[in-house]
Amino acid sequence: MKSATDETILIDQNQSLEKVVRAVKKVDEIAIDTEADSMHAYPEKVCLLQIRCGESSWLVDPLADIDCSPLLDVLKDKSLIFHAADYDLRLLHKRYGFRPNRVFDTMWAARLVGHERFGLEFLVKHYFDIQLEKGPQTANWGMRPLTPAMAHYALNDVLHLKPLAELLRKELTGLKRLTWVEEIAERVIEQACLPEEDVSDTEWRIKGASKLSRRGLAFLRAIWNWRETEAIRANRPPFFILSHDLATSMATRAACDENWISLIPRRMAARRRRQLEKAMNEASRIKPNDFPQRLYKPRFRASDREKNKTEAIKKVRDAAAEKLKLDPSIIASKATMIRLGLDDSNATEELMQWQRELLGL
After folding, report:
1. pLDDT digits over 79-133, tens only?
2. For 219-239, how does the pLDDT look when each residue is reduced to its tens digit (9 = 90+)?
C-alpha cells in the first residue's frame, strides 16, 4: 500500500492541469472524489477534485482561474472509481454537465458483498488495516490556501480506492454479483444526471408546512423567498439566515394576525430585517383565492388481497436476503414492496434485473 507521501500536486493553473490530462489519457481507470462547501456557502460549489492515477494524486482547484473542461472531457470516457458516487455525480453534473460512461462505486460494492458497515474509513481499516484520520470533514473547502490537514484528508479519500475496488471486484466475481453493482452504477449515473425538476411550488414547503392554513402558507412562501435571496447575497446556507422552526412559527403567527416580529432574532441586521418585514407586508395583501393550495398525499386502504401479496413478496425477499447475507432493503424497500402488492407496473419496471430475479418477478 502506498501512503500519503506519494506525489501529490495542487493544480491551480491551466499549464499544470495539462499534465494531469495527459496522465489520465494513458490509463483506463481513475479514482476520483470531490469536496464542496455546502456547510459554509450558498449555493454550494465544487471546491476540489481529487484525482488518483497510477502512483500520483492531484488536488485540482476549480476555484482557481483554470478551465476544468479538458480534464472532464477525458474523464467521462474512463472508468471512474467513487465511494458513494451519487452526491459527487449530482454535483459535477449540476456544475459542469458532466456525465461519465462507467462508474465503480465501492460503497455499493461493499453492500453487495454483504458488509453491514460500508463507510470508506471502515473499509480501509477492514481490508488494509489502515486507520484513516477523520480530519476536517466539515471544513470550509472554499477556504484558500488549503491547510496541510485538509490536503491530507482530501488525498486519503482517493488514495485507497483503486486497490479497494480490485478486492471488492474479486469478491463480487466469486459471489457472481459483479453485474449487480454494474447495474446499480448505471442507475446511479442516470438518476444523478436527470434534468432538474420544477420545485418552485414544493421546495419552500419545509417541515411543519403541512400544519399551516393556506394563508399561513402564503407567509411561509414569502419568508422562504426572502431567506433564499439573503442566503445568496451573503453566500451562506439558508439556515444561517433563519431556521426552519422560526420560519414556520412566524408564518403561523402572521396568519393569525399575531405578533410575529418579536420572533425576529435580535442579531439580525437592520437591512435584512426591513426586507423581511417588506416581504411579509406584501404577503399580507395576497387575496384568499391566490393563497397556495395545501398539498395532500393520496391515502388508500389496501385490500386483503393486496396485503397478502405484499406479505408474500416480503417473505421471498427476506428469504433471499438471508441466503445471500444481504440487507433486505437492497433487494426491495418497504415502499417498493407495497407498490408491488398494489400491482403497480412502474414498481416492477423500476427494479433492476437482478432484483426482479431474486423476487421471482
Report:
1. 999 999 999 999 999 999 999 999 999 999 999 999 999 999 999 999 999 999 8
2. 999 999 999 999 999 999 999
Torsion of CA 153, 157, 162, 165, to 10 degrees: 140
Q: Which residues 6+ apart lie within 8 Å of 200 measured at CB?
A: none
Kindly list the structural domains of the chain, giving each domain's residue range(s) and its CATH number in brackets, ordered by start.
7-192 (3.30.420.10), 209-290 (1.10.150), 304-359 (no CATH)
As given in the structure block, the three cell numbers for residue 115 are 458488509
What is the β-pairing status of strands 46-53 and 29-36?
Answer: antiparallel
Query: What is the Cα–Cα distance from 123 to 83, expressed in whole angstroms?
Result: 10
φ/ψ region of 64 (left if φ > 0, alpha if ψ in -120 to 50, else beta) reads beta
Beta-ladder partners of 59: 10, 50
| DSSP annotation of 262 | G
* Distance in angstroms (rounded) separating the CA atoms of residues 172 and 181: 8
Name the β-bridge partners of 30. 80
Give per-residue pLDDT as tens, 128-148: 999 998 767 778 999 999 999
The residue type at 298: P
